[in-house]
């Protein structure tokens, strides 16, 4: 390249020498030389730039290749993520559980498993949680407040979540609900995940197992006291006959108090033999009758009372008939071995006794005949309660020892039958109101086991031999102030009468119809039906009944009855 430049210069110099006179031509030549230099210089720069561009191009190609590879990797990961999401959704959809998310406003979001629509029988998306749970206005409002409290976390989530709806029921479905928080990067709750689990089958299996266990208990209770159960069956049938007569009367003639006592007796004794459907229906009948007992005037204004009472009564009879059939299918005909045969025998012996009396047989022989053939010890009517009391104590989560001390007093047990039936109320009251829970007894310095005793002796009163019976417990006793307060609240006595009552008279208030110190109705008490039922049967036998108590020491029910043969 340098040689070319030199030759070119030499050539131009020759011209310069021969044409020096031409200044214009020289200047033009020099200008051309400068242009050549510039062109050469620019050519060098362009080649250098070209080289740099080639390097950058190679780098760009490498970047593009990397981008293509990265894009392929992203697409691959997106496909894997889509598959993973699909797999997770499939798993959720096949777990048998419903999963859905709820925002701060209580609105169900789009994150929903397919099981939700099946469990709740509606499309949950964009619905309010309260609407999905079929909550009525008061509960719906409370549920909305709960959602807000969960998101605000004024109270820790684990402490407040159980205040939400934990169970959803629809038709036969039984759905358990649980809640989990979804938090954002700052740790605040962003959503609530609701987990709905179908527990319908488990609940049915559990209920079935419980029914079977109760059936076994029922059969065992009947086997232990077969004769007592047969008597109970006959008593219930007798009560049903009496209630049928009562419920067909005009309201002005209806004896609500007597109906109450009869329904309460069925409830009490059916519980003893674990006939819980019968017990529940008797309880429902009491519920309906209670409004008329407390406000008799309602009978005049309620046009449908007779129809509704008959409906409740029909349910009670149906449940009894079904239970009785189930028992007989297991144990056979119960009447074949006891009461029916005994009743016929007693009737025949009674007729023969009457024949002897009409033929002027001596009183001594007649008395001896009665003692031998159809009089039994009075204590027989009470002895059957020992297993009953102990079983009731277990159900009340209490521990009790039952003791019977009795002289052999021969009587005609049939004459005392209503009285013996009513004694269940005395024992239930002693267990519910008197005997404390084991730990409470220990704290009070008593043995953990409570004591219920029945003492039966023969004494002379007004020159006549009588049966003296004392039912005692070593429980907490009766708070006479509480009795007075309840009596005044229920207007059993006036304020003026209260000032004149002795402690003994205050306790006698417990024997009045409809009186109870309980403020709520439970399975065991609160109806105000019980001791007044005993008092009514004692009065029918022309006997006396009174109550004595010592606070924190115990209570005694003292009953005097004539000896009937």
Question: What do these coordinates show?
Answer:
With 565 residues, the chain is of the alpha+beta class. It folds into 4 domains: 2-91; 95-198, 2-Layer Sandwich (Beta-Lactamase); 209-336, Four Helix Bundle (Hemerythrin (Met), subunit A) (Up-down Bundle); 375-562, Histidine kinase-like ATPase, C-terminal domain (Heat Shock Protein 90). It is built from 22 helices and 12 strands. The protein has a 5-stranded antiparallel β-sheet with strand order 2-1-5-4-3. A 5-stranded mixed β-sheet has the order 7-9-10-12-11. A two-stranded antiparallel ribbon has the order 6-8. The N and C termini lie far apart (157 Å). 23% of the residues are buried. The model is unreliable at 16-20 and 337-342 (pLDDT under 50).
- The portion of residues forming beta strands comes to 15-25%
* CATH fold description of the largest domain: Heat Shock Protein 90
Count of individual domains = 4
Write the CATH homologous superfamily of the largest domain: Histidine kinase-like ATPase, C-terminal domain
Give a short account of the largest sheet: 5 strands, antiparallel
Q: Enumerate the strands of the largest sheet in spatial order, edge to edge or round the barrel.
A: 2-1-5-4-3
């Amino acid at each position: 390249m340098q040689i070319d430049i030199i030759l070119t210069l030499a050539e131009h110099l020759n011209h310069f020498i021969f044409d020096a006179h031409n200044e214009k031509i020289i200047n033009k030549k020099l200008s051309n030389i400068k242009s050549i230099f510039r062109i050469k210089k620019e050519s060098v720069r362009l080649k250098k730039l070209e080289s740099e561009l080639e390097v950058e191009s190679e780098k760009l190609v490498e970047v593009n290749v990397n981008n293509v590879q990265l894009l392929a990797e992203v697409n691959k990961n997106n496909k894997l993520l889509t598959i993973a999401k699909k797999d997770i959704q499939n798993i959720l959809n096949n777990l048998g559980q419903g999963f859905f998310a709820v925002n701060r406003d209580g609105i169900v979001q789009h994150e929903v498993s397919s099981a939700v629509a099946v469990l709740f029988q509606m499309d949950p998306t964009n619905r309010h949680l309260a609407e999905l749970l079929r909550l009525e206005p008061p509960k719906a409002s409370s549920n909305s407040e709960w959602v807000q409290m969960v998101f605000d976390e004024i109270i820790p989530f684990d402490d407040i979540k159980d205040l939400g709806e934990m169970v959803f029921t629809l038709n036969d479905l039984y759905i358990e609900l649980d809640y989990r928080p979804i938090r954002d990067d700052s740790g605040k709750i962003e959503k609530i995940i609701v987990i709905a689990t179908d527990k319908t089958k488990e609940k049915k299996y559990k209920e079935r197992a419980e029914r079977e266990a109760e059936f076994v208990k029922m059969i065992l209770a009947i086997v232990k006291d077969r004769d007592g159960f047969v008597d109970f069956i006959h008593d219930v049938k007798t009560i049903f006959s009496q209630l049928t007569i009562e419920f067909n009367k005009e309201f002005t003639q209806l004896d609500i108090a007597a109906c109450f006592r009869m329904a309460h007796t069925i409830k009490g004794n059916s519980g003893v033999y674990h006939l819980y459907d019968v017990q529940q229906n008797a309880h429902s009948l009491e519920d309906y009758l209670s409004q008329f007992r407390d406000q008799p005037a309602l009978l005049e204004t309620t046009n449908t009372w007779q129809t509704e009472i008959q409906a409740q009564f029909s349910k009670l009879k149906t449940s009894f008939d079904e239970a009785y059939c189930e028992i007989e299918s297991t144990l056979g005909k119960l009447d074949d071995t006891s009461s029916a045969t005994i009743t016929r025998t007693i009737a025949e012996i009674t007729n023969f006794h009457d024949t002897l009396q009409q033929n002027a047989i001596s009183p001594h022989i007649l008395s001896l005949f009665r003692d031998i053939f159809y009089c039994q010890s009075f204590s027989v009517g009470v002895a059957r309660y020992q297993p009953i009391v102990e079983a009731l104590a277990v159900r009340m989560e209490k521990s009790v020892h039952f003791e019977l001390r009795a002289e052999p007093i021969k009587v005609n047990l049939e004459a005392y039958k209503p009285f013996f039936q009513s004694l269940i109320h005395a024992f239930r009251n002693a267990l519910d109101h008197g005997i404390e829970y084991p730990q409470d007894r220990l704290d009070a310095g008593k043995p953990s086991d409570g004591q219920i005793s029945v003492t039966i002796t023969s004494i002379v009163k007004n020159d006549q031999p009588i049966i003296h019976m004392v039912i005692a417990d070593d429980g907490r006793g009766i708070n006479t102030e509480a009795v007075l307060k309840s009596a005044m609240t229920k207007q059993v006595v006036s304020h003026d009468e209260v000032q004149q009552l002795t402690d003994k008279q205050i306790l006698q208030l417990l024997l009045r119809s409809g009186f109870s110190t309980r403020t709520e109705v439970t399975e065991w008490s609160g109806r105000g039906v019980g001791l007044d039922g005993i008092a009514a049967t004692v009065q029918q036998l022309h006997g006396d009944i009174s109550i004595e108590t010592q606070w924190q020491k115990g209570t005694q029910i003292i009953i005097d009855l004539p000896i009937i043969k």
